[in-house]
Amino acid sequence: xxxxxxxxxxxxxxxxxxxxxxxxxxGVGMLLPVLGRDDTERRVLINTIGxxxxxxxxxxxxxxxxxxxxxxxxxxxxxxxxxxxLLLILVALIVRGVAFEYRGKRPSAGWKRGWDWCIVVGSFxxxxxxxxxxxxxxxxxxxxADAEYTGTFFTLLNPxxxxxxxxxxxxxxxxGAVFLALKTRGDIRERANALAGRIAxxxxxxxxxxxxWTQFAIGKAVTWATVFGAAAALxxxxxxxxxxxxxxxxxxxxxxxxxxxxxxxxxxxxxxxPSSTADAYSLTTTNASSTxxxxxxxxxxxxxxxxxxxxxxxxxxxxFRKRIGMRDIPxxxxxxxxxxxxxxxx
Length: 346
What we know:
Low-confidence stretches: 333-346
Largest sheet: 2 strands, antiparallel
Helix content: over 70%
Number of helices: 14
Radius of gyration: 20 Å
Shape: globular
């Protein structure tokens, strides 16, 4: 297998890991005012992701860095053409991160309420725009002979892309609701379980509509398997959630994310950024890649450091694996990081 293909697969794997892990972070953030009826309940929700949310974002940084190093032409065209939506995503992630750290710095209810909405918006914007971005990448955007994007911001807001945004939004909401049902106990767990059942219906309809539209437009014979896999995983998640099997439901929503990303990247290959202007202008794994020597060095680095990152993240999830509830939240207002430390030391 050529190194260009290896790195295309590795980048697809990095995005899969990012959406699997950060997806439930986004879902928890968006559900904060829905499932958190008071400050203590909202602190419970935040503490379910407090120890892991920043580690989950490492996958995004590595995916972006790998794209820059392995496929510089892809990176240049993508980040110049999608500048505004990617900037909005970046700002939203920054605002959300600041909100996690600053929410508990003052006891004022207005102060906390303002940061809570920053968490909601900072989760909603990426959950929506990542779907818009990837739908456009897979279906193709106007690119000229110089590998430059010739459209506008509104070119990206086409019906297919907006449906893709709605699909990732509802999928991450479901993933987050199931995660909360898995990580909490008591009344919050019951409400999260009930809400996940309602979100599942919407996620199945919207997700199936997007994948079928994409499949009929640009799909391949092999991608029918991943499309049906995503649908089956969502149905399995709904059934497991209804039976109160939160662990299986979470694995099923995660599997749905894996199948969706696999569908999109399989449809994309061997292109990395198709041109809707002319097929000859499309960026591929061949004409957008770095030199073979660069890819070889990157491969050795990945072989050495990837297992270390995986072991560290696995250890983090093992340490913070227990459910939390209202009684685990200290009476004094604290930041999410402090609250997480208290939970760890129980």
